[in-house]
Design a protein that fits this description.
heterodimer, A: alpha+beta, Thrombin, subunit H, 6-stranded antiparallel barrel, 6-stranded antiparallel beta barrel, 12 strands, elongated, B: mainly alpha, globular
Amino acid sequence: MNWISNLFSKHSTNFHLSLIFFLCLSLIIGSNLLGQWSSQVSYTIFHYPFFTVRSSLEALLEAEEENAELRQALVDASVQVTLLEEAQRENERFRSVLGFEPPAAYEMFPAKIISVTGDIIPTHAVINKGARDSVSLHQAVINQQGLVGRIESVTLDFATVQLLTDGANRVASRLARSRSMGIAKHSFATGMILDNVPFQSEVNIGDTVLSSGLGGIYPPGLVVGSIIDVTRQEEEPFCKIAIKPAVDFTTIDELFILKVAAP
Amino acid sequence: MTKYLPYFFYMMLIGFHRVILADFTSVWGIEINLTALLVAALALYKSEIEVAWAAFALGLVSAASQPDLMGWHALGLVVISQAVSRSTKRLNLDSIWSRVGVIAAAVLVHNIFLALFEGMSGIFERITVHVLPGVIYTSFAAWLFFLIKDRKITFKKVREIF
């Protein structure tokens, strides 16, 4: 055994180099499996931690940018709110001068969706608020994107929301810009459309569609969607208007129920 | 075991360089060849066996994204490490410039070796556009490294200037 140890110590450099060359050759001509395995180990230990750091840093930088944008948006919104409050006060003054009743004020309270039903897209949603939480029939339901639907049935602890995607749910609407009126409704065949808008109305793609408040269920001014297509045919008295709903009904989660505030 | 700790650190450094540092230190797409720089620098100071294993390991780490070329990368670095290690034993490398020269030669060989992986077409363009500027950039980094290592630049000296 001694001669082996002598031989090894005498030629240790050559022994090490031969071993390294053998390993290199195994990686070059050996099976792909060895290369894959070495790559995986090397990647996991020496690259992956830094990828995690890098992606966290990038996310942080993105968040910082987004934060700056949101701050700007908040400032803009604050200015807008101040102007709107001023306009509201002015509106109330003019209403009182003209002898009009003041517009109804609304309160919102949040609700969480428990389940949704519908064949292709959701048409009804069950929420975790019911009569105990002062939910009542026909209250309008919104989310941060716009009008979602109305309360169709109520039990003590739950309520069912009839979404705008249900064909039976129609919203008296008007165009925000031209004030032309129509009825927003949804069907699987056509998607959401704005019906009964006269042929000569001023309708443009991109116009916002709001609830008009007529019909008494939905308060005025809630965003229903925006116009994506307008077709006018000579023989038809009404325009064919396609709407893109403001709400993405496939991702709804948190909802808000609108309740007329106590005077 | 603590003897091998620096090598683990070098491997981490290569991973850090490839994932994060390379993007920040690259100038007009020219990158520092930190792997070749490390291997050549180790070859100046460490034994042949140590540097051969280090070159092999660093080759595996730097080529982790190319499993089918890992063996070639490791082999190339081992050959460079042995060439530097054996040649420097016969040379007097006291001056910084001679050491930078050796590093530049090692990086040049390694950069050409890497350029060959991309095929022979346009090889001369790659050599002039990427390889040679890469060698200059890496040599500059090596020069700074040796200045700091030989204490020609210290924090105290820098502070005294300002």
